[in-house]
Amino acid sequence: MDGDVVLVVDDEPQIRRVVRNALTAENARVVEAATARDAIDLAAAQRPALIILDLGLPDSPGIDVCREIRTWSSAPIIVLSARHSDQEKVALLDAGADDYITKPFSPGELQARVRAQLRRSRLAPAASANQVITIGALVIDPVKPSLKKSDAPVHLTKTEWELLRTLLRHSGRTLTHQQLFRSVWGNSAGDMQSYLRVHIRSLRRKIEADPVRPTLIVTEPGVGYRFEHEP
Amino acid sequence: MSESRRPRKPHVGLPEWLGWFVLLGAVTWGMTTIRPRLNEAHVTLAYLLIVQGGSARGGRPLGLALAAVAFVCFDLFFLPPFGTLTLQDPLNWLVLVAFLATSVLSAQLLYRAHGEAAIARERAAEIDKLAALGAETLNVGRAEEALTAIVSVIRSSLRVDECDVFLIDSGTRIARALRDSPELQPDRRLVDWVATEGRSAIEDLDGRLHADASADLLIQSNAGLQHARAFARPLRVRDRTVGVLRIGSARGLELTPAQIRVLDALSYYAALGIERVRLAGEAQRAITLQEAHKAKDAVLASVSHDLRTPLTTIKGLAHEIAQSGDDRAAVIEEEADRLNVFVAQMLDLSRIAAGTAVPDIQPNEAEDLLGAAAQQVSGRLGGRELRIEVSNEEPLLFGRFDFAQTLRAVVNLIDNAAKYSPANEPIDLAARRDGPWLVFSVADRGAGVPMPERERIFEPFYRRSGSPDVGGTGLGLSIALGIAVAQGGRLDLDDRAGGGSVFSLRVPGIATADLQRPTELPAGERESSSL
Question: Mean pLDDT, to the nearest integer, of B12-40?
């Protein structure tokens, strides 16, 4: 994250200090805000590459800040939350947050999340969805489309391809069940929860080295799924 | 007709009696003036009218007295020879006796009809009173006021000096008394005995107690109650003694059968009244408890929330220091994590206990959960092997459960297995179908749990006897159990074949037939929709 501007929004100076130390250790340039008002002004003025946003701001609910910034900025937003319910996390992701991290977090965990988000935002979305991706013994060509596992072709159904493309396009970002379902099945009615789980399971069986311990399609309990891989 | 059913005597004074005899004399005089034109039938009818009129107005004694005097007058003035009690014609005896018999009989019949009417009126009054009392009991706002009202109604309708109701709390202890005889202190031995035994007892005027099976009968039959100073009887609701009713009178108790009937009915009202007091109390306690739970939950949630910010700072700074080479800082970081886990588990348990952790139940797939569980514990199992067994074949293992909560329960079970089994033994995690259930099982090769501890290990803060200090909060299993139950499931502990324990978490399964398979997308490339 060399030279990247990261906006840190938290009303607690101690938390800002921990976050600043963790990010400057990775050579990011940190700007800080303590209120929602300052956060929005700074985000507009400094055009940060990434925003770390605490939800417990004194002047405005974090989710509103998230929504407002998202209307004109595509910079990744990582939300810091004290204990929030799964429904609240889903609402945050639906409001445009890219990831959340629960207090108390370790600096290492924060650094990893920030790196992943910066990497993802640097790639052009179209490229990430259309590139041929090699992950271990797996070669995925989303355009052709074709999938090879240890050089042996693996057949994916149309639905599975659609699901995999959606996950790849948002690699590193947690997609809520709702977002995934909409993206694959559109607005069709049905038992969303079971459709999604049936296909996640079959996709895992085809692409994961050990489908019972998935490392590519990771479950975010009660929230959704995330595609994880370091290119 | 038994004496006890005697209706209340009509209060007829001397003037009325005199009046009837004057009327009898006047009619007799009148008839003597026209005696030649009268036969026996005319005289009989006139006298019968007077006797019946007297019976109706003045009751049986007046009727019988009038009949006797009329009998003599008949003989003296209307049956020859006149002026003597002798009879010329023996057949006239028949007339006289028939007249007397008819008079007495009619007096008797009138008396009986009068008595039955009086009883009917009395019964109707009783029913009215009970109905009114019932309505009153239900209407009174506070349960205790209703009971007080019943007690005073019993005292006034029985015309006794003392009437007390004693409430029994759980067990046989007298909790408190609702008394309508403030100046007297009743013999508590009597009441305590009744409360314990659930049977009636009588206290004699000379202070002796009759506490045996016959007391119930004595009260019911009203025999010998006039020598009773007081009696106490249990108040029951559905075969449970809820209170004791004590009736006392310094003069001795003399109750009519009607009063005993009233007492029976009122006792039942009193029992219901006590039950209502108890239920009202319980409802109030439940509300208080619920509020206390909510308050505790709010405090814990707030503490948990407020702890997170300083913990983040502590962890962050400790991490930085650890990187500069001081390994004591790593300990600080670990302890901060432990504190965080402890507070989070306290909050979980509190929410489960208060019923505020409402599960979000969805169709979920077992393998997904096992994978997430393995991922969560991977960092803390060290080098220990976690084996996962899931059947590869269709149908899919689906169940209805809250994914995040069930995951927490399974992770707690894995942590528990890791704590109580040797570090070189693998832990086995599996999912299978069992009838209507989807079962997640966690099996270890530990020492197992001895029978007496099987229940107790699910209690919060319980630590197994003789176990090494394994750290942790002692809450994991209680939380897992609470999560299972809240979702309509179960958590069982069994011995494992070959040694160790198996914890089985059951949640409602979904039959394959009920699980709609989504339709495949239509052929042809589909445009990716945007998020």
Answer: 89
Helix (H) or strand (E) run with residue B229 in it: strand B228-237
Q: Is B124 exposed, middle or buried (0-12, 13-18, 19+ CB in 10 A)?
A: exposed
| Of residues B504, B500, B384, the one with CA closest to residue B445 | B500
Strands B228-237 and A146-149: what pairing?
Answer: unpaired
Helix (H) or strand (E) holding B362: strand B362-365
Contacts of A186 in chain B (CB under 8 A): 529
Name the one residue in this structure whose structure tokens are 């019993």.
B154
Question: CB–CB of B404 and A222 under 8 A?
Answer: yes
Segment B45-53 shows an average pLDDT of: 90
DSSP assigned state of B239: T
**Of all helices (H) and strands (E), which one includes residue A224?**
strand A224-227
Q: Are the C-beta atoms of residues A149 and A137 closer than 8 Å to each other? A: yes
* pTM across the whole model: 0.64
Question: What are the tens digits of pLDDT across the range A69-101?
Answer: 999 988 999 999 876 678 888 888 988 899 889
Instruction: Yes or no: say if A114 and A28 are a contact pair by the CB < 8 Å rule.
Output: yes
**Token pair of B319 as six digits:** 């991490």
> What's the pLDDT tens digit per position in A134-170?
888 888 888 888 888 888 999 999 989 999 999 988 8
Alpha-carbon span B188 to B202, nearest angstrom: 12
Query: Can you say whether the dihedral through the CA atoms of A59, A64, A70, A76 is positive or negative?
Result: positive
Mutate to test the interface with B, among A170, A212, A216, A227 (most CBs of B within 10 A): A212
Q: How far is A5 from chain B (nearest CA, A)?
A: 21
Please report, for residues A87, A228, B23, the alpha-carbon distance to residue A113 in angstroms, rounded to integers and kept in the order given: 21, 11, 122
Which of B336, B517, B531 shows the shortest C-beta gap to A183? B531
Interface mutation target, options A8, A12, A83, A184, chain B, most CBs of B under 10 Å: A83
**CA A58 vs CA A10, A11, A54, B313: distances in Å:** 9, 7, 10, 19
The pLDDT value given to residue B179: 66
Q: Which residue of A has its CA nearest to B348?
A: A83
Taking an 8 Å cut-off on Cβ atoms, the answer to whether A197 and B370 are in contact is no
Which of B384, B444, B441 is CA-nearest to residue B420?
B444
Residue of A nearest to B524 (CA): A158
- Residues of chain A in contact with residue B340, where contact means CB-CB under 8 angstroms, are 104
Among A22, A158, A214, select the one facing B520 at the smallest CB separation.
A158
B228-284 tens-digit pLDDT: 888 888 888 888 888 888 888 877 787 777 778 788 888 888 888 888 888 888 888
Distance CA B154, CA B150 (A): 6
Task: Enter the tokens of residue B446.
Answer: 């530990």
Q: Find how far residue A40's CA is from the centre of its chain.
A: 21
Q: Which residues of A touch B522 (CB under 8 A)?
A: 158
**Best-predicted range by mean pLDDT among A151-155, B200-204, B451-455?**
A151-155
List Cα–Cα distances, B315 to B59, B69, B303, B379, B472, in angstroms.
Answer: 105, 120, 18, 17, 19
